[in-house]
């Protein structure tokens, strides 16, 4: 009998080590709104209303449990086979409910608070989370791993993310003169920039750059051309926009970097959300910034 118990114990240990899902049971999670979300067992049908959460669910091994996503979810490619439920920030609850979820993951914010409350009133657990910073990647992975029974997969993703991020990050003091100063341009008319509240500010810093509007605490905000000229960036970084249009506009030519054609344009959803691919974003931007080290 003792040998049977030992063999059983070893089998359980082996299953866990291989990434098999934990045994079902009651789960209680506190989400980013401070609400306690209770599940009778790990969720089997998940509607994800955040692209970053969808990517993480697939990364930790819960992809087969995702039964709904937003129209903006483009990674991993397998997510394309999951039915879209439309918008994530202002979800159509009838469409979400039609997917018969036992868990809905949505962004924690004013636009989704009502949807979360309505889902819970209908008996559907709703997990409200924020995915704004690089530190949210391992944290949210662990949360989703618990919710879906993929704790081992979440641990693996979190550990790999930390190692890869550390390996690609530049080891230069934040205020070093060798760091090129960067204008992160989200929109050009009127000028809208990225601030310290966005993970992109962290990506720039880890890639060796210095965000000229790091003192803007919000994720983004409007700025004047005069302020941009005064802070005199070495390079203008945009995401998917056509830099030639900006260079042709007389008012923007008052910015030295624009006059000199110092542009970096980055494409890809790794620059749209913090995710397991953020180390790839850092590495790509690091290579692009190397040519803009200031020679002043």
Brief sketch in words of this structure:
The chain has 296 residues and is of the alpha/beta class. It has helices spanning 2-17, 51-59, 93-97, 110-121, 136-148, 151-168, 199-206, 225-231, 243-247, 256-259, 278-289, and strands at 27-30, 36-39, 46-48, 66-68, 103-107, 126-129, 181-188, 191-194, 210-211, 220-222, 235-238, 263-265. It contains eleven helices and twelve strands.
Helices and strands in order, then pairings?
Layout (H helix, E strand, L loop, with lengths): L1 H16 L9 E4 L5 E4 L6 E3 L2 H9 L6 E3 L24 H5 L5 E5 L2 H12 L4 E4 L6 H13 L2 H18 L12 E8 L2 E4 L4 H8 L3 E2 L8 E3 L2 H7 L3 E4 L4 H5 L8 H4 L3 E3 L12 H12 L7
Parallel strand pairs: 3-4, 3-5, 5-6, 7-9, 7-11, 11-12
Antiparallel strand pairs: 1-2, 7-8, 8-10
Helix pairs in contact: 2-5, 5-6, 6-11
Architecture overview:
The chain is an alpha/beta fold and 296 residues long. Helices cover 37% and strands 16% of the residues. It is built from 11 helices and 12 strands. Strands 7, 8, 9, 10, 11 and 12 form a 6-stranded mixed sheet that branches. It has a 4-stranded parallel sheet with strand order 4-3-5-6, sandwiched between helices. A hairpin with a 5-residue loop joins strand 1 (27-30) and strand 2 (36-39). Helix 2 crosses helix 5 (136-148), helix 5 packs antiparallel against helix 6 (151-168) and helix 6 (151-168) packs parallel to helix 11. The longest helix has 18 residues, at 151-168. Mean pLDDT is 89; it is low at 1-22.
């Amino acid at each position: 009998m003792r040998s049977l118990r030992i063999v059983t114990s070893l089998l359980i240990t082996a299953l866990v080590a291989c990434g098999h899902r934990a045994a079902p049971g009651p789960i209680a999670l506190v989400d980013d709104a401070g609400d306690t979300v209770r599940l009778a067992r790990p969720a089997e049908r998940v509607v994800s209303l955040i692209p970053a959460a969808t990517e993480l669910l697939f990364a930790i091994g819960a992809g087969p449990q995702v039964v709904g996503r937003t129209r903006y979810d483009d990674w991993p490619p397998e997510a394309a086979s999951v039915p879209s439920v439309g918008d994530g920030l202002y979800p159509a609850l009838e469409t979400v409910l039609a997917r018969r979820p036992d868990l809905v993951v949505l962004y924690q914010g004013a636009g989704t608070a009502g949807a979360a409350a309505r889902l819970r009133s209908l008996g559907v657990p709703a997990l409200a989370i924020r995915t704004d910073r690089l530190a949210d990647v391992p944290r949210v992975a662990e949360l989703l791993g618990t919710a879906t029974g993929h704790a081992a997969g979440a641990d693996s993703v979190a550990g790999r993310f930390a190692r890869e991020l550390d390996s690609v990050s530049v080891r230069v003091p934040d205020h070093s003169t060798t760091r090129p100063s960067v204008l992160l341009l989200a929109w050009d008319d009127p000028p809208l920039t990225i601030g310290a509240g966005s993970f992109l500010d962290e990506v720039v810093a880890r890639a060796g750059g210095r965000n000229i509007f790091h003192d803007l605490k919000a994720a983004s905000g409007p700025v004047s051309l005069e302020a941009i000229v005064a802070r005199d960036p070495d390079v203008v970084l945009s995401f998917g926009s056509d830099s030639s249009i900006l260079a042709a506009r007389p008012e923007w030519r008052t910015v030295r970097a624009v006059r000199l054609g110092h542009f970096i344009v980055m494409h890809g959803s790794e620059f749209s959300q913090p995710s397991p691919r953020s180390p790839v974003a850092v590495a790509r931007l690091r290579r692009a910034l190397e040519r803009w080290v200031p020679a002043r």
